[in-house]
Amino acid sequence: MTEVVIAGIGQTKVGEYWSIGLQNLSLVIILSMVIVTSCTPKPTEPVLTDSFFSGQALLDANGNGQIDSEDTPVANATFIVALQGGGEFGDNTDEAGNAFVTVPGGVEYPVTVRMEAPKDSTLKLIGTSEITHELSDESPKFLFSSK
User: Fold this and answer.
1) Domain residue spans in the chain?
2) CA distance linking residue 133 with residue 122, whole number of Å
């Protein structure tokens, strides 16, 4: 017989001495290994979360070529997010000139964003037509001219 001190398994006092045979000792060791193995967290795949983008379209109301407080929103312009591996996601701007795009499952940065004038309009984009967008809290703004 082997004498083993077991804490917390069915005895009335911690540290109480029990006498068990080698066969029972082997069973306790195997059960302990199973419990430890089953409680060890397994590595998991990283969670891919959706990515959210927004852009704003404005009309250069005062004709100065700069985004300022006098500029007005452009509705129905198309905001497009182009991914590195191909694929594009887009949405039209609302009455406040804002568009919101959700890309499901995660994105590799940088991405390219662009804004297109509303269909059947005479608006022309002022400045860069595409912007390389890194992970940031800022929404790109696009300025249009009616000339």
Assistant:
1) 2-39, 51-145
2) 27
| 73 neighbors 56 (Cβ within 8 angstroms) | yes
Distance CA 92, CA 101 (A): 9
111-144 in b/e form (b: 16+ CB < 10 A) is: bebbbbbbeeeebebbeeeebebeeeeeebbbbb
Taking the whole predicted model, whether its pTM rises above 0.70 is answered as: no
Q: Which fold has domain 51-145?
A: Immunoglobulin-like (2.60.40)
Asked if residue 35 has pLDDT above 60, the reply is yes
d(CA 106, CA 109): 10
pLDDT digits (tens, 9 = 90+) for 64-123: 999 999 999 999 999 999 998 889 999 999 999 999 999 988 788 899 999 999 999 999
Task: Determine if the peptide bond prior to 110 is cis (ω within 30°).
Answer: yes
Q: What is the mean pLDDT of the chain?
A: 82
User: Shortest CA distance to 96 belongs to which of 119, 79, 114?
Assistant: 79
Q: Which amino acid is at 35?
A: I
